[in-house]
Design goal:
Length: 429
């Protein structure tokens, strides 16, 4: 474990692409971040009057036709996939990695994806065909109803299709994989992509993650099994690490990155955002104390620091998971104190879900994009709605005004409800 990434070929990030509730494209996304403009509002995609939580962070005015070149593929893309492929195309444009500049067999894809929920309308005709005397006739489902479903319907629901469509768009014939580990997916995808380049299997990788929970079934499920905010003021609803937080907000979006070996990027004259110093993962073990103390996140942070060859004091900021629930924020804060010691109360922390909520796999990618743009612009956005510090968290949460960077090394972390955790450390060059 101590050998880490520093003894392996260096890997850098050369392209960033964002499709988010606060902007599509890096410039619009950053402008709204640094201005403190939230993307959270009342849910508009469908009626919300029967939902306990009526708020959401939706991507406004998104038209996949503007970003995806192979238009015929749209009929087999769910909204999640459309968001993901669009962000990957933006990242490739940003990286200026053109066809012919890289051997297609040396360009790969690793993408994180959420569980993709079908819409009731897509199965409505088949279900109606089985109705008989106000009952559901299961025998008719296997006999004839399946024929009422669009033959390629399932392709819209498969999480691996994001990576497939990205590879088709860019003729990426190298290593290809999909990570489905909820909020940890984006950084786990980054970890695998880095390892792929370091073992010599690729020169460049397209990495990203996407997700959309703007769906009545998803929102109903999350209201039952997770804590969503019931506030009626969208601007002040999501408040990571604030004493008065009452839950997260559903959202949607995607973020993508082009990563390359340092030598390949330099040879083609690429503009480099940052070097990836170390990525590591961990998971809570069995028992209450492991979960309550965020043991998985502690191990991820400690290993990422060791692989990066830096001390906690060298971190310029932490891009926190910041779920904005009572339990998750407390567990995360405890993990920082265990892993970072006294530095946990001095390192600046930002929680970007306060701008765009949580959209499972995709939110971690958009958060990392926020840190990369912060490193480039020299300042870190505030955490919205951090008004009353939680005495049980004791973190240096950025609020009131953006934090001017003096140290251009950042750590981004994500953690799932069951304790799967990942930390990534990047440094501007």
């Amino acid at each position: 474990m101590t050998a880490g990434f520093q003894e392996s070929p260096r890997v850098v990030i050369t392209g960033v692409g964002v499709v988010s509730p606060i902007g599509i494209g890096n410039d619009q996304f950053w402008a709204n971040l640094i201005a403190g403009r939230t993307g959270i509002d009342f849910l508009k995609a469908f009626p919300n009057f029967n939902l306990p939580s009526k708020l959401a962070a939706e991507v406004p005015e998104f038209d996949a036709l503007d970003y995806i070149s192979d238009k015929k593929m749209l009929k087999v893309m769910s909204r999640d996939i459309q968001l993901g492929v669009s962000s990957a195309n933006l990242a490739m444009d940003d990286a200026k990695l053109l066809r012919g500049e890289i051997d297609p067999d040396r360009l790969g894809v690793v993408f994180g994806a959420s569980r993709i929920t079908t819409t009731p309308q897509e199965l409505a005709e088949a279900a109606a065909y089985c109705a008989r005397d106000e009952k559901f006739d299961f025998d008719r489902w296997g006999e004839d109803s399946m024929g009422q479903i669009y033959p390629l319907w399932l392709l819209k629901q498969l999480p691996n299709m994001s990576a497939c469509h990205v590879s088709i768009e860019h003729d990426a014939r190298g290593p290809n994989n999909t990570i489905t580990s909820r909020e940890a997916s984006a950084l786990l995808a980054l970890s695998e992509a880095v390892a792929t380049i370091q073992r010599g299997a690729a020169d460049a990788m397209i990495v990203g993650a996407c997700g959309s929970e703007i769906h009545p079934i998803d929102i109903a499920r999350l209201n039952l099994c997770e804590s969503l905010s019931h506030r009626d003021d969208p601007i002040r609803a999501c408040r990571p690490f604030d004493r008065d937080r009452d839950g997260s907000i559903v959202g949607e979006g995607a973020g993508s990155f082009v990563i390359e070996s340092y030598d390949f990027a330099r040879a083609r004259g690429a503009d480099i955002y940052a070097e990836i110093l170390g990525v590591a993962a961990g998971c809570d073990g069995k028992g209450y104390m492991n979960g309550a103390g965020g043991t998985g996140l502690v191990r991820a942070i400690e290993t990422a620091l060791r692989r990066s060859g830096i001390q906690a004091s060298e971190l310029g900021h932490i891009n926190a998971h910041g779920q904005s629930t009572k339990r998750d924020d407390l567990v995360e804060a405890r993990a920082y104190h265990r892993a970072l010691g006294a530095e946990a109360e001095s390192i600046p922390v930002t929680g970007l879900k306060s701008y765009f909520g949580n959209f499972d796999a995709g939110s971690g990618a958009v958060e990392l994009a926020g840190s990369l743009l912060a490193l480039r612009r020299g300042e870190v956005p505030v955490t919205l709605n951090y008004e009353n510090p939680d005495p049980y968290c004791r973190l240096n949460v950025i609020h009131h005004q953006p934090h001017r960077l003096r140290n251009f090394t950042a750590m981004s972390v994500n953690r799932t409800a069951v304790g799967q955790s990942v930390a990534a450390i990047v440094r501007a060059l």
